[in-house]
Amino acid sequence: MNKVYGTAAEALDGILHDDMLIAAGGFGLCGIPELLLQAIKDSGVKDLTFASNNAGVDDFGIGILLQSRQVKKMMSSYVGENAEFMRQYLSGELELEFNPQGTLAERMRAGGAGIPGFYTKTGVGTQVAEGKEQKDFDGETYILERGIFADLSIVKAWKADTTGNCIFRKTARNFNPPAAMCGKICVMEVEEIVEPGELDPDHIHLPGIYVHRLIQGEHEKRIEQRTTRAA
Predict the structure, then answer these.
(1) From CA 72, how far away is CA 145, in angstroms rounded?
(2) Residue 221 above 80 pLDDT?
(3) Cα angle at 42 between 7 and 208, to 5 degrees?
(4) C-alpha R_g of the chain
(5) 9, 76, 188, 195: most buried by Cβ count inside 10 Å?
(6) Which residue stretches of 96-184 are H helix?
């Protein structure tokens, strides 16, 4: 089975439709699937729900889909870098489901492992717990969180072989692996594709069994907040 496609649009062909739940990897602007996000925008699909640590910035990452009004709901941890997101949310145009960062990562991982839900102490006694089942274990209260089962996962890795075994670099490893695991279909973009056997098995972060389609491309790698030392 050939998993390697020529472009992001080709890799998403036949998959996209309105009202999808999409799990997107990345942390801030690090390790985001920028080529696949652009292809989703170009496709014109709408009413999308994104499960992602953040919402990009105004003109990059998921932010480009917010600008084009293709997103109806965000399931996120941090959204503070996107003014358009704030405007849409405060005006009631965009639905938001806030998740503690670790809870969101575990919800994705749980979905990938076939686990429909789990109990956590995170969020007990706060707005996060509202409307959720609560249960006591050993005298401590926990809330039930549901696993995320996405229609599509879009992720970015540093290097992969043609079967989809891949390696993430540094911060990009935070959310990309669990995001990749929880989708019915996973499409991955990478900086370099190599032949099977070229990657050390001990260095592989995500096995190719989770990856269905794969592209190689050039990436901008934009910096979210550039801070430099005075000369």
Answers:
(1) 22
(2) no
(3) 40
(4) 18
(5) 188
(6) 101-112, 176-181
